[in-house]
Amino acid sequence: MVNAEHIKSLAEKNFQKVLEIRKHIHANPELSFEEYKTSEYIAKILDSLGIEYSKGIVKTGIVALIKGKNPGKRTLLLRADMDALPIVETNNVEYVSKNHGVMHACGHDVHSASLLGAAAILNECKDSFEGTIKLIFQPGEEVLPGGASLMIQEGVLKNPEVNIAIAQHVHPSMETGKVGFRSGMYMASTDEIYLTVTGKGGHAAMPAEYNNPLLIASEILLELKKKFPNDGKSEIPTVLAFGKIEGKGATNVIPEKVELAGTFRTMNEKWRKEAHAEITRIVNEVANKNKGTADLRIEIGYPFLVNDEKVTELCRSAAIQYLGKENVEELPLRMTAEDFAFFSQQLPCCFYRLGTGNKSKGITSGVHTSTFDIDENALRIGSGLMAWLTIQQLNAQ
Asked: Which residues are part of the catalytic machinery?
């Protein structure tokens, strides 16, 4: 049976190749559900490793299999997402995005490269574990309905049936060399809210002749704020926030309507449904009171993400063995969302964080920014630790 030092040596052996893969994917980003060239590139890497795969799942997704001893014993899924964001990259690096206006600003290039690195290690060590590893290269994590949900609909959890799933995500506020875990509830559900408030437009100098939808919308926001204060004191973690309000009037023009967009996030499915009803009630009551109308649309997004305690604790212990206790941290709850949650709703999962920052090198930019980047040394851990966690899970009694 292989030990942690052997896995580290394989991660080191493959490091330059993994680094090359990451740079290539970073320089050639593609938006959600448009990852055709990324998918072709990943398929070529799998071909070079001699790993069997199927492609074209949800158009660009790939599912690959590595079979160990007694492959029918259990199946563990490892997932990486492939899509990029509509951001103009401003980094001055050799691997800067060649696709202007599109950037791997959330680290999905790191996730895919790390999974390919882990695949190379696991393929070389397949006589050291029992069971089958299913590698998922997933499209469309960044936009609803989420590539994870669509891949599940297309049967990626079957043939062979998956028993456990693991994924990692870059964490720029954590120094490279460290990782983080949290058992139980970890990330919030997310819903998108679209609201159009209609009043009566007119000349701003003639208030008797118009019904200003901006004022109606403002009152709606204030009433929602009373119900959903976002003060962190709620019994159930909850966030309701609006980031867009657009009236398209002018200094002397009152518009006919106002459009708003926001997000609702929480960690309880019962409360999630109740909150939707409460939002609807408040919006309609305020609009009606002010003799306006409101068209409200709530798009149901990702569910909350929960980490299975048994799987996560085994991963945490394996990470301590691999990196040392001082490099394994406890993660706080996050109100951000992640479509890996769809997997966590169906089977035991562990979603953990990979430290990618380095303050001494000035690598501190957060995800979804034009200057996001990583300390490349994180790729050693990104591939090696994932392989180690997989072996430990599959060989657990």
From this structure: 302, 376
